[in-house]
Design brief:
- By secondary structure, this protein is α/β, with parallel strands linked by helices.
- It has a domain of 88 residues: Nucleotidyltransferase, domain 5, CATH 3.30.420.270.
- Helices cover 31% and strands 16% of the residues.
- It has 3 helices and 7 strands; from the N terminus they run H-E-E-E-E-H-E-H-E-E.
- Helix 2 packs across helix 3.
- The longest helix has 22 residues.
Amino acid sequence: MPQLSKHTGTSLSDINIVPFVDVVLVLLVIFMITAPILQSGIEVELPKTKTVKEVAEDRLVITIDRAQRVYLGNEPVNIHKVAEMVRARTQNPASDAIFIRCDETVPFGSFATVVDELRQAGIQNISVVTEPISSRPRTP
């Protein structure tokens, strides 16, 4: 009499997670590379200084690019309306820190106009964003 096999064919019930892990790691690398780029969308060449203070918390940033256009965050604004827009976005304009990123080729007059607008609106805590001298690429 023929012997019946007690072992029957089973379907594959295990999920292969190796491709899933590969995809997750690739996405992680992509986000790690693009996150610093998205942090400051306006391209400016910051002035270089010996002393640079690292700030970890998220702050309100005003940017002046090479063409002397003024941005609040990543949104372009009129230079004469920047103070009222900053006051609308801060809870305590007199003490909240405002950071100014200014391209090193921008004339001082444009920078001074933005600072003057902020001071006239009662905003006193204004900081200038710079880069350390050691990070400057050498140009021939």
